[in-house]
Amino acid sequence: MNESVLAMIDKLHARLDDLAQVVREIPFELSGYDKKLDKIDDQVYLIEVELEKKLAGSVPLKPLSSERSEEFDAAAQKGASQAGTEKAASAATAAPAESQATKKESSESTSEDDNEDDKETEGFLSESAKETLAGATRTLNSIYKDGKEVVGEFSEAFSDIKDTLGVKNIFKKR
Questions:
Q1: Which pLDDT score, from 0 to 100, does residue 168 have?
Q2: Taking residues 150-156, what's their average pLDDT?
Q3: Residue 8 burial (C-beta neighbours within 10 Å; 0-12, 13-18, 19+)
Q4: Contact assessment for residue 5 and residue 151, using Cβ atoms and an 8 Å cutoff
């Protein structure tokens, strides 16, 4: 989990080590670079604080047993097939029909099928479980978006360092 973020942190460590090596080799005093690096440090600190807040507000997820996982997969497949049946029934009802009797029979059989499917799915996922899954999905989406922003900020920060030093290949490993 979070391998891409950890990989970026490792990359930052490597780049900072390379930067330290270059600075050690410079035989004159560098002025102003400590303040530029301090700005980057502040950005990293803000990211750390933001992630600590997310961690404090998070709720640990319990792992599912393999049986429970298979039940969720089966319900998802059934829900997908039910959605396909409902779309087909809607299309048939919306299309011009040759007679009213055909329409009525079609809608009655569809209603009976829907009621049977509803009874079967109600026993598997309760409303609270559906709400919990929806909440978890929203949380994962926000974590993804925030992680994407963090990586972008790190990229900008190192571009600033690179531009500041005026050397094109300073961060490449040797």
A1: 64
A2: 85
A3: middle
A4: yes
- The half-sphere exposure of 118 on its side-chain side, counting CA atoms within 13 A, is 8
Which residue has better confidence, 151 or 103?
Answer: 151
Residue 28's alpha-carbon distances to 16, 23, 38, 87, 107, in angstroms, are 20, 9, 20, 74, 85
- Average per-residue pLDDT in the chain? 75
DSSP secondary structure, 22-87, as one string: HHHH--S---SHHHHHHHHHHHHHHHHHHHHHHHHT--PPPPPPHHHHHHHHHHHHHHHHHHHHHH
Neighbours of 160 (CB within 10 A): 15
User: What is the pLDDT at residue 53?
Assistant: 87
Q: How far apart are the first and last CA of the chain?
A: 30
pLDDT at residue 93 tops 80: no
Average pLDDT value for residue range 56-60: 79
Q: How is 134-168 classified by DSSP, letter by letter?
A: HHHHHHHHHHHHHHHHHHHHHHHHHHHHHHHHT-T
Tell me, what amino acid is at 50? E
- Mean pLDDT computed over 110-116: 52
The CA distance from 174 to 166, in Å, is 19
Q: Distance of CA 53 to CAs 5, 48, 58, 139, Å?
A: 17, 9, 9, 14
